[in-house]
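G., the chain you wanted modeled:
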Amino acid sequence: MIRRARGFTLIELVVTVAIVAILASVAVPLVELNVQRAREHELRSALRQIRGALDAHKRAVEEGRVEARVGGSGYPASLDDLVKGVPDAKSPTPARILFLRRLPRDPFSPDREASAAETWGQRAYNSPPDAPAPGNDVYDVYSRSGRIGLNGQPYREW
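Predicted structure as tokens:
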């Protein structure tokens, strides 16, 4: 009796590769969707942190803990002031009030070489909401990305 070596036929290999390719084509969009959701969550979190720090700076000015600039709105002159801190006007010893430990980057910014502050679009207090422009202070920040979120709203409008 002659025994033949058992192995996979060409047809079996082609069918197996086709099944793996179909499964991969289903998995790739799901992975991309999860990556976009994670970046959107990171953007939402960064916007909350920065906007909270901007509001805390404004409150500190209103409470007299930070000296107000003449003709100023009470908002910081730059995003870096939130990290570097500002002098505490009520402290008997030289102290600084820090509003952020670090400035988060815009997760949708394509420029990896830019500083974190440069990745954000900045709106001054006296600029209109429909045409944000930088100025003497930072009233709000927004993403400069031209992409649209999963909710159908451009990231610039978040």
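Strands lie at 86-87, 96-97, 120-123, 140-143.

Shout if anything looks off.
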